[in-house]
Each structure stands twice: as structure tokens, then as C-alpha cells.
Amino acid sequence: MARYIGPKSKIARRFGEPIFGPDKVLSKKNYAPGQHGINRRKKNSEYGTQLAEKQKAKYTYGVLERQFRITFEHAQRSKGITGEILLQLLESRLDNIVYRLGIAPTRAAARQLVSHRHITVDGKVVNIPSCRIKPGQVVAVRERSKSLENIAESLAGFNHSKYPWLEWNEAEKSGKYLQLPVREEIPENIKEQLIVELYSK
Question: How much is the pTM?
């Protein structure tokens, strides 16, 4: 499974946002990395701004370039607003759904749970993090994995009403994907129109 394995705090500092989850380094050093990061006043070109937005989206959802491009092309072929559909497709990934349900504290942790066969979709074990979940499907913690300490810690006190497109069943440790989220419901600070403009060149 291809994934980014480089320094995460450095990337988060580049964008000035905790895109990989809570970051202690970012909270202490809220400026760009590098020797001159604290005094950097670089003015980005239009292309640079668009590229940076694409990179931020890729890192946020843990998707590498080829997979991101394929997802964009899928969004482009679909009816509707390309940028919004792109985010909906990214939100529909199994690892993202596991993260949104609070089963894992970060998307990286969610990918690991999926890869290690702790997650089921409609009762069947699925170990492909990029698997696209459709409205109506149920994502759950595998029966034998419900006692795992890291899952219990992540779920403890998690607010399951944050995402109206998901419905959580505490007794079953499962969540139903009700519908595609509209743009206003997706909390990520991503300017998807810049990504559309970049790929349209």
C-alpha cells in the first residue's frame, strides 16, 4: 500500500495547519520549516498557489499523486461540480470513513486498522483503505477487534453527531454511510476550485 512516510510535522508547518492530526511541533513552531522559515515572505505565483492546494489535499487524505489524479478524473467525468465531487470521493474512502466515525484518531491510524483486517463493510472484512464506500453501506469494527485498546481510546468521548452524513451505532460499533456530504459539511480547509484550475491547464 503506497503512502507518504516522510516527516509529517514538516509538511504541517509548510501549510500552517495540522493536516495529519494534532501536532505538538506545529503548536510550538507555527511557521515554515527551514533555516529562514520564520522570516520567509515568499510570494507564490498563481500556479504555485494551485499546486500547494493540490499538495495539501493529497497529504490531508493520504493519497499519492497517481491515485489523486485518477480520483480527479473520475470527478471530472461525473455530473455536478467537479471540485465538490472530488472531495466527496475522497471522503468516501474506507480509511476516511473509519477516521470520521472516530474508530481511529487519524487517517494514518485508520489505514492501519483497515490493512490489518480490523474493519468490515456490510459484514465482510475489507483490507483496502482506498475502497470506496457507497451510501447505505455499513462500516464496522470486526467482532474480535472490538476489545482493542486503541479503538476504545479513540471512541471514548468522540462526538458522533459532528458529521450528519454518518450514523453511529454504539452497541454494534458500526456506522452507516447515509449520503454523500455536501461541501458545507466537509470541514477540511481545502480550496478545491484551485485544484480544478490546476488540472484544467
Answer: 0.82
pLDDT band at 165 (very low <50, low <70, confident <90, very high): very high
- The answer to whether residue 184 is domain-embedded is no
First to last CA, the chain: 30
Per-residue model confidence as pLDDT tens digits over 118-158: 999 999 999 999 999 999 999 999 999 999 999 999 999 89
The pLDDT value recorded for residue 1 is 46
Specify whether 21 is located in the same domain as 36. yes
DSSP state string for 149-196: HHHHHHHTT--TTS-TTEEEETTTTEEEE-SPPPGGG------HHHHH
Between CA 149 and CA 37 the distance in angstroms is 39
Same domain, 84 and 101: no
Q: Quick check: is 167 in a domain?
A: yes
